[in-house]
Amino acid sequence: MVKLGYHLAETIDKNNDSSTFSSNSNWWKRLWALKLPKKVKIFVWRVINDDLPTAVNLLHRKVIQSSACSLCNCSRETLVHALFLCTRAQQVWSLLPSFTAVPNISQLNGFEIFSSLAAATSNSDLERILCRMWSIWTERNMETHGTKPKLASLICTFADNYVQQYINSSLQQTSLESSSSAQSCSSSMEQNNGNTCPTVTVK
């Protein structure tokens, strides 16, 4: 987590415009505050930096010999195509009422897409959108390696449930920690016969 934050901060720091830097930093804080599993946040960080192993990126690195989309064969597999414009991705987005298409998305980079989505949606909607992006990418990789394609509705259900389960788990953990802290405090006071207050260390 710390290394991830350091690398993103380093990337942002390359921009000499202080106002842009401030704006980028705000978006980074927005991302890290979202209630999403670490693996999804890492995926989004890679999107922001256009670091996903799309066919276009792999061709540039001379790993493969064609940049064509392996699922639809209708276009080059750029980040935008893979996550938004491929027919497979469009089927998923059509099932999310809160999703509003980003204008001129084909001309935007990963950071511009993220900041546009973040500016237009609440945290809860943004969490669902980003998790669906992650699910679309995960499903693409599975299909590329021979897994039978899933219905768009199943991809949506999986993504939404994944977010909700993470939130529920986090709330449960917080509740357990609060309960444990309260019990510890009560026990300490009983041991001191109520004559002194337990010491609290602020870190």
From TrEMBL:
Compositionally biased residues, Polar residues: 189-203
| InterPro entries xrefs | RVT-Znf
**Residues annotated as domain Reverse transcriptase zinc-binding:** 23-93
Spans annotated as Disordered:
182-203
Per the UniProt record, one Pfam family is zf-RVT
For this entry, the protein name equals: Reverse transcriptase zinc-binding domain-containing protein
